[in-house]
UniProtKB/TrEMBL annotation:
Subunit structure: Homotetramer.
Classification lineage: Bacteria, Bacillati, Bacillota, Clostridia, Peptostreptococcales
Coiled coil: none
Reaction equation(s) it catalyzes: L-tryptophan + H2O = indole + pyruvate + NH4(+)
All residue ranges annotated as the Aromatic amino acid beta-eliminating lyase/threonine aldolase domain in the record: 47-425
Name of the featured protein: Tryptophanase
NCBIfam families per UniProt: PRK13238.1
Class of enzymatic activity (EC top level): lyase
Cofactor: pyridoxal 5'-phosphate
Segments passing through the bilayer: none
CDD domains named among the record's database cross-references: Tnase_like (cd00617)
Keywords for this protein: Lyase, Pyridoxal phosphate, Tryptophan catabolism
Length: 460
């Protein structure tokens, strides 16, 4: 019998959670327009909305909090963070920001030279796509087709389709392409990794056409772990060496450090060696985020991040984290529930096109399962599908997402296997009555990033 390894940490402090009664849950979700983002945290039992900023920091990170240097300029914590970035990522320059979208807000206007230029990615996440479009660019996704078949066991479903990438550049003209974003891991197709071979291929095409490669590096360590476990030639390499090789094929990155930085707030721009791009980015941070040596962060935030970047590359931590997610995924697979396979790095993604095929894309099947999961067990998850995707910016027509996914996002070092069992048991109960689920329509729909604040009602 396989022996399960225990978590590579012990619990030092706990926070009470409470499951409110079913009647109250039904009332709460209705009052907020069936949008899980609007629920109060105190009304959630197990919160799987996101892994962004929701992880538990270590005693070493908390000790660093007490060493915060809150000098406006030149904080020692900035220089500690700079050293971590250079040691782990291997880039010469970096600029802190308050989080990932702050980094995008600074960098993208610099790199999108003309309105209408294309930004090419394996798959843009929602805020990344929004920042591209707000800056006048057009987001294009070029992930491999296998990513959209949840039953296919492809080891690197986050990969670019390299043929489509080069074909698009040729068809549209390189002058109409701003830059390339490599999202690691690729969140919108199920937290799926990108192989080293594929990253090299992207860089080769980029160099051929004179385009810069920018990583969306929110989950860089998890991507490196998958490379070590799944890609031939990397099985004996250290995680930090894989990370440095990955980033060597790029020109820069934006990072929401609230994921693999294991902090509650933080982000950055890092640039490999382009001093001009760094200088412009550094100057643009000032009016948008703050002085270049704090960039919207306190000194204590920067110290926690400097330490978190060093902890996230520890293999026993990564093995434990991804093992917990694999456990939840396997429980759902064993129950016959369709999920994106293989299980990704930060979440389990339920295929709601197959879960409730009676609900069409424009009535948001994954949102229906999301609402029912809260009613069933007080578990908050999130829709990654047509509700999130939104409308065509030119025609206003509802876009159809290639996948309708319910994301069960696991915070780092927060929940136990017992919590995973509660989630699995609840979804299995919903699976048994899935034919009764109904779709939703808007009662309020904002124009940008609508899924955060929209209000809905069930379709009778």
């Amino acid at each position: 019998m396989a022996i399960r390894k225990a978590e590579p940490y012990k619990i030092k402090m706990v926070e009470p959670i409470k499951l409110i009664p079913r009647k109250e849950r039904d009332k709460k979700i209705k009052e907020v327009g069936y949008n899980q983002f609007a629920l109060k945290a105190e009304d959630i039992y197990i919160d799987l909305l996101t892994d962004s900023g929701t992880g538990a920091m270590s005693d070493y990170q908390w000790a660093g909090i007490m060493m915060g240097d809150e000098s406006y300029a030149g904080s020692r914590n900035y220089y500690n963070l700079e050293k971590s970035v250079q040691d782990i990522i291997g880039y010469k320059y970096f600029v802190p920001t308050h989080q990932g979208r702050g980094a995008e807000n600074v960098l993208f206007p610099i790199m999108i030279k003309e309105k209408g230029q294309y930004v090419l990615s394996n798959m843009h996440f929602d805020t990344t796509k929004a920042h591209v479009e707000l800056k006048g660019g057009r987001a294009v996704n070029l992930v491999i087709e296998e990513a959209f078949d949840t039953e296919t066991e492809h080891p690197f479903k986050g990969n670019f389709d390299l043929g489509k990438l080069e074909g698009f550049i040729k068809e549209k003209g390189v002058e109409n392409c701003a830059f390339i974003i490599v999202t690691i891991t690729c969140n919108s197709v199920g937290g799926q990794p990108v192989s080293m071979e594929n990253i090299k291929g992207v860089k080769k095409i980029a160099d051929q056409y004179g385009l810069k490669v920018i990583f969306d590096a929110a989950r860089f360590a998890e991507n490196a772990y998958f490379i070590k476990k799944r890609e031939v030639g990397y099985e004996n390499k250290q995680i930090v060496d894989i990370i440095r090789e990955m980033f060597s094929y790029g020109d820069g990155l934006t990072m929401s450090a609230k994921k693999d930085g294991i902090v509650n707030m933080g982000g950055m721009i890092a640039i490999k060696e382009d001093e001009e791009l760094y200088t412009i980015s550094r100057s643009m941070v000032v009016p948008i985020e703050g002085f270049p040596t704090y960039g919207g962060l306190t000194g204590r935030d920067m110290e926690a991040l400097a330490r978190g970047l060093r902890e996230v590359v520890e293999e026993d931590y990564l093995e434990s984290r991804i093992g917990q997610i694999e456990y939840l995924g396997q429980r759902l697979i064993d129950a016959g529930i369709p999920i994106q396979r293989p299980v990704g790095g930060h979440a389990v993604f339920v295929d709601c096109k197959k879960f409730c095929p009676q609900i069409p894309y424009n009535q948001f099947p994954a949102q229906a399962v999301c609402v029912e999961l809260y009613k069933e067990a007080g578990v908050r998850a999130v829709e990654i599908g047509s509700f999130l995707l939104g409308r065509d910016p030119e025609t206003g027509e509802q876009l159809e997402s290639p996948m309708e996914l319910l994301r069960l996002t696991i915070p780092r070092r927060v929940y136990t296997y017992n919590h995973m069992d509660v989630v699995a048991d609840a979804l299995i109960e919903i699976w048994k009555k899935r034919e009764t689920l109904k779709g939703f329509e808007f009662t309020y729909e904002p124009e940008v990033l609508r899924h955060f604040t929209a209000k809905l009602k069930p379709i009778e």
